[in-house]
Amino acid sequence: MESTVQINSKRLWDSLMDMAKIGATSKGGVCRLALTDLDRQGRDLFVKWCREAGCSVRVDRMGNIFARRAGSEPARPPIATGSHLDSQPTGGRFDGVYGVLAGLEVIRALNDADHPTQAPIEVVVWTNEEGSRFAPAMVASGVFAGVFDLEYGLSRADLNGTTMAQELARIGYAGDDPVGKRSLGAFFELHIEQGPILEAERQTIGVVTGAQGQRWYEIRLTGQEAHAGPTPMSRRRDALVGASRIVNEVNRIGLAHPPYACATVGLLNVSPNSRNTIPGEVFFTVDFRHPEDGVLAQMDRELRAFAPATANELGLALDLQQIWHSPAVAFDAACVSSVRRAAEQLGLSHMNIISGAGHDACYISRVAPTGMIFIPCENGISHNEIESASREDVAAGARVLLAAILDRAD
Ligand code: GLV
Ligand code: MN
Ligand code: MN
Question: Within 10 A of 7 (CB to CB), how many other CB atoms are there?
Answer without folding.
Answer: 24
